[in-house]
Amino acid sequence: MNIDLHKTEDTEPNWDVWQEIMPRYQQTVRELAEKYQAIFVPLQQLFNEACERAEASFWIYDGVHPTAAGHQLIADQWLAIVKQYDEVAWFEARK
After folding, report:
1. pLDDT number for residue 4
2. How many CB atoms lie within 10 A of CB 48?
3. How many CB atoms lie within 10 A of CB 67?
4. For the purposes of burial, counting CB atoms within 10 Å of the CB of 13, is it exposed (0-12), middle (13-18) or buried (19 or more)?
5. Is residue 91 very low, low, confident or very high in pLDDT (cuts 50, 70, 90)?
């Protein structure tokens, strides 16, 4: 799963630092998923779009860690991505 970031009162004081390091973290997660043949679940765009419907703190209370509503977004996204994979083929490819 991807790591997402949004500006809240907790991330705002060091926003420049967060914006610099988070893309590297996100890329590392993507590379690890590829290396270990894991299913990658992108989250940043999902949360970007959610933040157009409600304040970032509704989804991610401190700019990084999700609220219950944010966890629901993650769960729904995880299910949507995982359902795209043919279970048998995915497991066979990992052997």
Report:
1. 59
2. 13
3. 14
4. exposed
5. low
Separation CA 69–CA 76 (nearest Å)? 11
Tokens of 32: 């690890």
Three-state DSSP state, 66? strand
Q: What is the per-residue pLDDT for 93?
A: 66
Distance in angstroms (rounded) separating the CA atoms of residues 35 and 21: 21
85-89: average pLDDT: 67
Task: Report how far residue 30's alpha carbon sits from residue 9's, in angstroms, rounded to the nearest whole number.
Answer: 28
The rounded Cα 51 to chain-centroid distance in angstroms is 14
User: What secondary structure letter does DSSP report for 64?
Assistant: S
